[in-house]
Design goal:
By secondary structure, the chain is α+β, with helices and mostly antiparallel strands. Helix content is 21%, strand content 30%. The strands form 3 sheets. A 5-stranded mixed β-barrel has the order 1-2-3-5-4. The N and C termini lie far apart (72 Å).
Length: 212
Amino acid sequence: MTAWLSFLVVFLCSWSLRDLVVEACTCVPIHPQDAFCNSDIVIRAKVVGKKLMKDGPFGTMRYTVKQMKMYRGFQIMPHVQYIYTEASESLCGVKLEVNKYQYLITGRVYEGKVYTGLCNWYEKWDRLTLSQRKGLNHRYHLGCGCKIRPCYYLPCFATSKYECIWTDMLSNFGHSGYQAKHYACIQRVEGYCSWYRGWAPPDKTIINATDP
């Protein structure tokens, strides 16, 4: 009886821990521009290898990448060879396919290593919109001094001239919304910030409009 009770306690504890870990990775929606501006490293790369490293209880996955282009992080690490992430998706680890796709990967540098996760912006390169690619090359950098304020419930108002109201959460979530795919919040020469749609010239008479 004692052995059975001990087994039951271990089983229940393991089950509870598993459920806790599965629910552990929760990310706040972030506009691609903020993901760019808040990252140490932003690169376009192809994964050419992977290795499970015995770090921590679940291990760390080390991806070997072939860097195609760097958009942010030249001063920190001009060339990236490895990307590290948690081996478990429940701990926000990302799963990248080897020798198959090119990826846009954002991450932070810690003790000389580049780390990424589910709460960072990563995407297959061919799924990025033209506006997002232009944002990576130039436009997102122009908006790093601006603040993108998420709007979850109407009405939403900007509290300063440096804010753009992000309304994708009213009908979409995270990177999948229209503003996330097609707009950058950039600072104008006049000093204020407003949305800029990639394929149209900026309208300087409109501030914080959803569809300038």
